[in-house]
Amino acid sequence: MASPTVEPRRPTTGPAHRRGLVGWFDPRGRRLGGLAFILNRLTGLGLVLYLYLHLMILSMLIQGPNAWDDFVDIALSPPFLALDVVLLTGMLFHGLNGIRVGLVGLGVVPNRQKALLVAALVIAALVAFVGALRIFAGEQGG
Amino acid sequence: MTETVTNARTTRLVVSRRKEGDDPGALRYDTFDVAVGPSTTILDALVAIRRELDPTLTFRHSCFHASCGTCGMRVDGREGLACVTPVPTRDEVTVEPLGNLPVVSDLVVDMNVFYDEFDEAGRPLVRADDLIPECAPAEGIDQVERYEDCIECGICLSACPVAGSDPRYVGPAALAAAWRLIDEPRGRDPGPVLSLMDDEQGAWRCHLAWECSEACPSGVDPAAAIMRLRGAAAAARVRRLFSFGGNR
Amino acid sequence: MTVEKQPADRPDAGPRNAPVFVLQVISGAALLVLLGLHMVAQHFVVPTGLRYYEDVIAWLGNPVVIAVEVAFLVFVTYHALVGVRAILFDFGFSDRAERRITLLLWIVGIATIGYGVALFAAILNAA
């Protein structure tokens, strides 16, 4: 069966204060949910980029221990560790906000979206902070 | 008896202007210095501008008490009804028309597109399910019919970031109206409406920014309605999958 | 007087790919588990973490680990590209453009998973 067609409901030409892509990032008038919307997009895109970077870096394992271990030594430098903290924070927010999106987005708890969002932000911040301390302290063992 | 406004101050309103023939890609703003008091609203200030400074300024208004939804606009980027939005205490305030709808003139947008979307949902107007218990019908009145909270002001559509980039998205107002019909069919078959909104450009295009509910001046909470609509749509699909039958 | 209206008759309307969201939620839930396992493995299995070559190769020598990592790759690739698709579709492209975007992302996704599986094989062969 052919997919039904949805034509544009609002004119795509002519004057309008249409926000468009720029409007996604316009902070004026935005509340917490709008911030979550923007952060989810940015962290998602960042994680997509990281996925492909990670796959490319893993290919160094084919080159043998010297190439890989040399890279690891670079990756343990403070700038790279800082990027690890950014990655960790992004993963935490995206995952925890994803729980909110899943539960609220399927109509399970539509009245709890703000509480879930605040919880996601707080938990992400706390775990990221602890993670940052461990990353820079060089602790690896459990 | 002569009265004067106490604590009057002057605020600069920076107002978006557009007239027929203007360059569609250009945004033009005019500034007006307006004397305001502690309870002056944005609508009061706009009326004063039109009366005393620039009679060509166009904007819509009607009831002056937040029940008609006509005066929706953006003040410093935030949607609201001008008749109940106090002039901020800042020295300069920006006033712009609602977003995501074609601008007809200055602060007036073409609402026909917005109203047409309600036809998709059947435009439910009457709601009888959540009467306030303390407000029992007066003696001699058998039944009370309560109108929907939605005043069709278009503020939710303006606030929605997805409606800003996707002209095919049906929008929060129509989706909330669809949910109200599904939740309270009042003798109508909700199946077709649920099927209509169970669509990638319908309920599933929402990304939970919740800006529509935050901006709504009338307590509609369209975002929660959209989520309940999605839950109903998902449940209907599961039922069809397991051949339980029915669309709700 | 305002009157209630019947829903507009749109015989061409109906469900269009709406379960994508449900699958995105399911893959996201799977990732919460798989990513958690991945992170625990990377940082807590070996005292210094799975950093250096010998530790990584020894870890990847376990077929259960390979199976979990491939599952992780499949779910993360699906979730990532469906997310990209959702962002792109927020621009209201035509149905035809949306079909092309979907096809392109399927190709990218299969290529990504294929690359990942080939990479695992190449790493183990080179060890």
> What fraction of the residues of chain A are assigned to beta strands by DSSP?
under 5%
Secondary-structure content class of chain A: mainly alpha
**Which oligomeric form is depicted?**
heterotrimer
**CATH homologous superfamily heading of the largest domain in chain B:** Alpha-helical ferredoxin
Tell me the helix content of chain A: 55-70%
Number of domains of chain A: 1
Mean of the pLDDT scores of chain B? 87
Rg of chain B is: 21 Å
Rg measurement of chain A, Å: 21 Å
Order of helices and strands of chain B: EEHEEEEEHEEHHHHHH
The CATH architecture of chain A can be given as Up-down Bundle
List the uncertain runs of chain A.
Answer: none
Q: Helix coverage percent of residues of chain B? A: 25-40%
Overall tally of structural domains of chain B: 2
Molecular shape of chain A: extended
Number of helices of chain B: 8
CA distance, first residue to last residue of chain A? 55 Å
In a nutshell, what does this entry contain?
The complex is a heterotrimer of chains A (142), B (248) and C (127). Chain A is an all-alpha fold.
General description of the model:
The complex is a heterotrimer of chains A (142), B (248) and C (127). Chain A has 142 residues and is mainly α. Chain A has helices at 20-24, 32-58, 65-75, 78-105, 113-137. The longest helix of chain B is centred in the last third of the chain and has 20 residues, at 222-241. In chain B, the strands form 3 sheets. Chain B has a 5-stranded mixed beta sheet. Chain B is built from 8 helices and 9 strands. Chain B is globular and about 65 Å long. Chain B has 2 domains: 9-108, Beta-grasp domain (Ubiquitin-like (UB roll), Roll), CATH 3.10.20.30; 112-241, Fumarate Reductase Iron-sulfur Protein, Chain B, domain 2 (Orthogonal Bundle), CATH 1.10.1060. Chain C has 4 helices and no strands. The longest helix of chain C is centred in the last third of the chain and has 32 residues, at 95-126. Classes of the chains: A mainly alpha (142), B alpha+beta (248), C mainly alpha (127).
What is the fold's blueprint, element by element?
The complex is a heterotrimer of chains A (about 140), B (about 250) and C (about 130).
Chain A (H helix, E strand, L loop, with lengths): L19 H5 L7 H27 L6 H11 L2 H28 L7 H25 L5
Helix pairs in contact in A: 2-4, 4-5
Chain B lengths: L8 E9 L10 E9 L5 H11 L19 E4 L2 E4 L10 E5 L6 E3 L2 E2 L2 H10 L4 E2 L18 E2 L7 H5 L1 H5 L6 H12 L7 H7 L13 H5 L6 H20 L7
Parallel strand pairs in B: 1-5
Antiparallel strand pairs in B: 1-2, 3-4, 3-5, 6-7, 8-9
Chain C lengths: L18 H26 L8 H8 L2 H27 L5 H32 L1
